[in-house]
Specification:
It is a single chain. By secondary structure, the protein is mostly beta strands. The protein is 0% helix and 42% strand. It has one domain (6-113): Rieske Iron-sulfur Protein. It has strands at 6-10, 18-26, 29-38, 41-46, 71-72, 79-80, 87-89, 101-105, 108-113. The strands form three sheets. It has a three-stranded antiparallel β-sheet, with no helix packed on it. The chain has a three-stranded antiparallel β-sheet with strand order 2-3-4, with no helix packed on it. The chain is globular and about 35 Å long. The mean pLDDT is 96. Bound molecules: FE2/S2 (inorganic) cluster. FE2/S2 (inorganic) cluster binds at residues 49, 51-52, 54, 73, 75-76, 78, 90-91. FE2/S2 (inorganic) cluster (FES) is lined by residues 49, 51-52, 54, 73, 75-76, 78, 90-91.
């Protein structure tokens, strides 16, 4: 089965470390997610905390903690590893963010598939 790719944004919108929230239509679904750039790598997750399902951002596009080393949920302060999405601090230890498959082609970042 082939899946379509959906343009999310261009790489320039992300600092390193940095994050970027988005909402795109993909294969008939509205996908609310966020991107993280860290050490030259890109990661994407659904904007839904495994604790209660709330969005994570505390300010638009802000998904990282103050030193940019972990993803932070604004609601109850859970922290997640950037590369795996696993909760390492807060009310949902061991649970994980839902990872989105992306592709970086030149300066464009595409959503490929959703879990
Ligand atoms: S909703 Fe994210 S920590 Fe509670």
């Amino acid at each position: 089965m082939c899946s379509e790719s959906t343009l999310i944004c261009v790489t320039d919108v992300l600092a390193d470390p940095g994050s970027y929230g988005f909402e795109v239509g993909h294969e008939g679904e509205t996908v609310e997610g966020f991107l993280v750039r860290f050490d030259g790598q890109y990661y994407a997750y659904r904007n839904s905390c495994p604790h209660t399902g709330s969005p994570l951002d505390w300010v638009e596009h802000q998904f990282l903690d103050l030193d940019g080393s972990l993803i932070q949920c604004a609601m109850h302060d859970a922290r997640f590893q950037i590369d795996s999405g696993e909760c390492v601090m807060g009310p949902c230890p061991g649970e994980s963010l839902s990872k989105l498959e992306i592709s970086v082609e030149g300066e464009n970042i595409y959503l490929i598939s959703t879990p």
